[in-house]
Amino acid sequence: MPTTLVTSRYLLYAFFIVLVTISPCLADEDDGFQEITAPETKLILEKGNAVLVNVLSSLEYELQHIPGSISIPINQLKTSTLLPKDKEKPLIFYCMGPR
Q: Which of 18, 89, 90, 96 has its CA 20 to 30 A from that of 49?
């Protein structure tokens, strides 16, 4: 895939990338969560320093997602076995923004 297409895809999702808790609301930075930009996300992912998680439904994931992300719908986060065992590795959760 051409680099410009990948970069464009990351920029497209710039408005949707948010670190979230199990609930679909934004957390305060005091809770250890923060919003990050698409360029920050791209840099983190290129270094292999995080896991990118799409929390939309499986259907929405199939229609459009960031390559390399894993699909764990928000209602399955508590029971999913797809999250990494390494609790030190940062997780980047993204969706279509607040609804």
A: 96
